[in-house]
Amino acid sequence: MVAPVLGKRRVAHRSGIASNDAKRTSEIDVHVGRRLRLRRTIMAMKQDELAEAVGVTYQQIQKYERGDTRLTIGRLFDIGLVLGVPIEWFLDGLRDGAPVHGCVADVLDDRETAELVRVFSRVDNPKVRRQFIDLARVLASVGDEAS
């Protein structure tokens, strides 16, 4: 880690990006944005609804979700409160400061998969949940046979 230079505004960060380069985003910012979009989608919340709840524009939410704009810890905390998750949820899937590919977050990044998870989570009856899973397995095997 580079030591701060006295008299200049250059403080090294863990990501290796100095504070004078703070407008540049990293893989971590993209990962956090993807997790934000995933949770918002699972909650069936629109960008403008989330934006209003945390006091920003929907365009700003778009920038956060793409990883174009870095989220401050305070804003991430506010978003977590609205979406019902702790800050750590947005960091799930990171190891040693880089995204781990092939984790659950990658699978859930697909909108249809996120929608399926959202719908499934609304089913309260354990018997119906089991039937839902069984139906999904049957449909998957039919799809495999057609290929």
Please provide the count of β strands: 2
Mean pLDDT across all residues, rounded?
A: 79
Tertiary shape: globular
Rg value: 19 Å
Largest sheet: 2 strands, antiparallel
Share in helix: 55-70%
List unreliable stretches of 5+ residues: 1-21
Provide a count of the helices. Answer: 8
Overall structural class, as computed from helix and strand content, comes to mainly alpha
Distance between the termini: 52 Å
Order of helices and strands: HHHHHEEHHH
Biggest sheet, spatial arrangement of strands: 1-2
Q: Tell me the fraction of residues in β-strands, as a range.
A: under 5%
If you had to describe this structure to a student in words, what would you say it looks like?
- This protein has about 150 residues and is an all-alpha fold.
- The chain has 8 helices and 2 strands; from the N terminus they run αααααββααα.
- The protein has a two-stranded antiparallel sheet with strand order 1-2.
- Helix 1 packs across helix 3 and helix 1 crosses helix 7.
- The N terminus is likely disordered.
Helices and strands, with pairings:
Layout (H helix, E strand, L loop, with lengths): L26 H16 L4 H8 L3 H9 L6 H11 L3 H5 L2 E2 L2 E2 L4 H5 L2 H11 L4 H21 L1
Antiparallel strand pairs: 1-2
List keywords for this structure.
mainly alpha; 2 strands; 59% helix; single chain; 147 residues; two-stranded antiparallel ribbon; disordered N terminus
Give the gist of this structure.
The chain has 147 residues and is mostly helical. Helices cover 59% and strands 3% of the residues. It is built from eight helices and two strands, in the order αααααββααα.
